[in-house]
User: Fold these one by one.
Assistant:
Number 1:
Amino acid sequence: MKTVTTTTNVYNFSELNNTAKEVAILNHRDINIEENWWQYVYDDAENIGLKLTIFDIYGYCEGKFMDSPEFTAEKTMLEHGQHCETYKTAANFLADKAKLVAKHSDGIKIDIVAEGNEDIFDDECNDLEFEFKKSILEDYSTMLQKEYEYLTSDESITETILANEYEFTEDGKRF
C-alpha cells in the first residue's frame, strides 16, 4: 500500500486574482436563488391582501385579492412608501374609485351611488378593479424581476461568498 499526501493552497475570495474571482462568481451564479428566493416578495404581497399564485422572471405574474381591492389598496398605502410603485397604483385606484362613485351619485351625496345607477356603477367598478389587479400584479412582477437580477448579480454573489467565508483554490474553484 502506498500513501500519498498532497498539499493544496487555499485562498479566501479577496486573495484571488481577478480571473479566479470571475471563475468563483460564475461557479456560484445560482447560490442566492437555490431556495425560495421569492418568499419575501410573496410575503409582502400577502401582507397587503394580495395572493401571488404564479410568476416567472420574464414579467408574468398572476394573483388574486384575499379581501376586497379597496382593502388591498388601503393596506398598500399604509405599508408602502409614497415613492413605491405599488403605493402609486393603489392611490390611483382609490382616487378613480371615488370619482366613479361621485359620477354615479345623485350629485348631493357624492360618496354614495344613487339608486338606479347601481348596475352601470357595478360594471364600471368591475372594470376598474380588474385594471387595478392587473397593475398591482405588474408592480409585483417588476419587484420579482429586480430581486432576481440583484440576487444573480456579481455584487450579490460576492457578498454571499464573503459572508460565508468560502475558500478557493488558486484557479477560483471552491475548496
Note: The chain has six helices and four strands.
Number 2:
Amino acid sequence: MGDLAIEWLGRVPYAAALELQQQRLAARRRGEATDALLLLEHPPTITFGRSARREHLLAGPAELRARGIEVHAAARGGDVTWHAPGQLVGYLVVDLAARGQRDAHRFLREIEAGLGAALAALGIASATRAGVTGVFVAPAAARARPRKLASIGIGLKGWVSWHGFALNVDLDLAGFDSIIACGLRDVEMTSIARELGAHTPPDLAERARAAVAGAFAKRF
C-alpha cells in the first residue's frame, strides 16, 4: 500500500492550500506520489461543503469582510465549518483503490478512528454519533449536549481522496458563532484546550500534531 507522507505546512491561506491539494491529487492519480497527509492551519475562513445551506451562515458579507474572514465553496462532503489559527487541519490525499478500499464510508470511519486515537493520546475520551460524521467528546451523561471536537469532509476523484478533517486544538471558539457548524443545531463546538482546562500543556499544539501524525501513520 505504500507509506503515508506526513507534512506540517504551518499557516496557509485556503486558496493556496487548495492549489497544493490539487497538485498532490493529480500526482497521486498519475502514480507519481505516495499517499499524503498535509497538516496545516488556515487564517480565519468559512468553508461550505457540497451539502451546505446558505442559511447556516449567520453573518452577512459586510460583517465578514470587516472581520477579515474569507468564505470559500469546497468540493467536499458536509455542510459549513469554521477554520482559524489553533485548529489543526488535515488534508488526506489517499488512493483508496490502491489500498483495496473503494468504500468512502469506511474511509470516513477510519479518519474518525485515527482522530479518536490521537485524542486518547492527549487524555481526552472521544466518541462518534450514529448517522453523523465527526468526533465528539465522550458524553458524561446521557442527556448532555453533544460537544464536537473535529469535523470531517472529503472529496474523491478516481478513488483518490482530498480534503479531510479539522480538529479544534486551541482556537477562539467564538468564530463558530458566525455559522451553524456542520448544520447541527443541537451541537456545541469545543476544543482540546477547553476540555483539558487547567491541565492544558503549554506545548499543546505540538503535542496535537505529533499525536495526529502518529495515529494516522499507524492507521494508514
Note: The chain has a mean pLDDT of 95.
Number 3:
Amino acid sequence: MPVPLFHVDAFASAPFTGNPATVCLLDEPGDEHWMQGVAAEMNLAETAFVRPLDDGFELRWFTPTTEVELCGHATLASAHVLWETGRLARDAPAHFRTRVRGLLRAERAAAETIELDFPSDPPASAPLPDGMAEALGVEPRNCARARVGSVVEVATEDEVRALQPDFRRLAQLESVVVTSAAAGESHDFVSRYFAPRYGIDEDPVTGSAHCALAPYWTERLGRDELVGYQASARGGTVGVRLRDGRVLLGGRAVTVARGQLAI
C-alpha cells in the first residue's frame, strides 16, 4: 500500500527556509532496513516515520545513514502534518512515543507556532576532543559537552557565521554545536551545528541542540525565555524556555510537497 509522504520546512516562517524534513505516515510498524533506505533516498537531515498507537503516535527518526534518538525539527514537522491532514484534531496535543527519549509532546500555540516539550540537555564543562578546535578553525571561549555533542562558545556572532569547518576531519569526531551571544536585539544567541559523522555536514536548524543551548544561555543571560537563531545558509529561529527540567521549543512549519511512496 502506498505510504503518504510530506516534505516540510520546520522552524521556518516561509518555504525554503528552516530545516527540511520528510514525514512518512505508516499504518503498520516499518521494517528498519526499509526505513533506513527511505531516509537515504530522501537524503535530508531527518526522515520521520509516524504510526498511530492507542495512546498517541510512535515516532522514529533516520538520517541518511543512521537512526537517531532525538530530532526536534522532524518532530515539529510530524505534528504539523498530523494536524494539517486531520489525523489529529487541531486543538488536540500530539503525543509521540519514542524509543529512547520517552514521551514527547507538541501543541499548537499562538500565531501558528508549534511548541515542543522536550527533555533538557544541560551541558557540563569538558575539554574538546583532540583536533576539534583545529577542524572547526576557532579559538574556543568556553567548552562543554551534552548528549547532543560538544558545545563550543566563541566570542562573537561574526565568528559563528564565518565558520568554514574541515568536514573530513570533523567526520572522525563527535557532533558539535558552535554558539555565541547574539550581536543584535532580535535574537539572544546564535549557533551552527555540524554532524558529518552521521551523514550531516551542517544541519540547517537543530531542535535537539537547543535542548542544550537553552540551559546554557539561560545560565549566562539570566533569563529562562530566549530566542535562538541558527545561522546556517537556510537559517531558522527557535524560541526556547525552561520549565521543570524540560525545554519548550517553539517554531513554525510549512508544507512544501505532498506525495506518496510507491514501494
Note: The domain at 3-117+250-261 is CATH 3.10.310.10 (Diaminopimelate Epimerase; Chain A, domain 1).
